[in-house]
């Protein structure tokens, strides 16, 4: 997936092709304005106000408790961006908005967009980061409300990739035990355990993550099949041949290459023979002659916010080989840029 300038008319297309369109302006001024418009509409409940059907400007403003004139400008901006449709004096959701933004939708990203208000402030440190090389660890700057927003946002972000990954991870026949390292909200474990009825999971994460993720996991109704355990995977004993699957979802980008290599070795020790080590990450895809925009921007973001960055599937597979595991070919999840790299612990 890419973001970029999309012409609205033949004239604009010709200007873009001729290099006459000011693309840096569109990809900065208008990009951050669009981002803030969608985040603001989510926060104020505009998409929820329209989830049940079309409504007038006054009806939306009343439901959202917002100023009618300013709300009109917001709605118009959303129409121009393709999130709403306007029909005379009424507004309605486009399929894109209806799929992803109402809070009660099964694929809702609303909580992730709410957390982006925190991320927005962190990104303001980008100049300082590049000048000094010192990142701003987002986890260290979250207060109690921030941790709760972070967990809700990560849970929203996990919905679609977790369901697809649960179908792709080659869980061994008869598998009983899963260790989910840094799994916070636990939804990846929930999806895997629903896919494999004989499987139960332990979700290992830091105490502050577990505190705010526990209600999210409880809401899934998995009972004792998916449980939290407070701890630190970099230092805690992970056991020896206790698990059939060890999962690392959206964690590797927070760790250095050496930390990931060591953790892969400890995960391999925790696996039973024939067990599977699965890493779910936004891959840094670097095709010959071209750099993936998604991978490169994500790498910069995680470099700024977590001291590390994204990794290529080759790098992840090498950590698995160093741990004595046999890596499979990587897979990229549908429409996300998020990758899955699995490896098997050979029997004997």
What is the tally of beta strands?
Answer: 11
Number of helices: 14
User: Which shape, going by the Cα principal axes?
Assistant: globular
Report on the biggest sheet.
8 strands, mixed
What does this structure look like?
This protein is an alpha/beta fold. It contains 14 helices and 11 strands. The chain has helices at residues 10-17, 23-44, 46-49, 57-64, 68-80, 95-100, 110-123, 126-132, 144-168, 187-195, 207-218, 257-270, 293-306, 313-322, and strands at 55-56, 84-87, 90-93, 177-181, 200-205, 226-230, 243-249, 271-282, 325-327, 331-332, 338-345. The strands form 2 sheets. Strands 4, 5, 6, 7, 8, 9, 10 and 11 form an 8-stranded mixed beta sheet that branches. Strands 1-3-2 form a 3-stranded antiparallel beta sheet. The longest helix has 25 residues, at 144-168. The radius of gyration is 22 Å and the shape is globular. The two termini are 42 Å apart. The relative contact order is 0.09.
List the topology elements.
Blueprint: H1 10-17, H2 23-44, H3 46-49, E1 55-56, H4 57-64, H5 68-80, E2 84-87, E3 90-93, H6 95-100, H7 110-123, H8 126-132, H9 144-168, E4 177-181, H10 187-195, E5 200-205, H11 207-218, E6 226-230, E7 243-249, H12 257-270, E8 271-282, H13 293-306, H14 313-322, E9 325-327, E10 331-332, E11 338-345
Helix pairs in contact: 2-5, 2-7, 4-5, 7-9, 9-10, 9-11, 12-14
Briefly characterize the structure:
The chain is of the alpha/beta class and 348 residues long. Helices cover 48% and strands 17% of the residues. The protein is built from 14 helices and eleven strands.
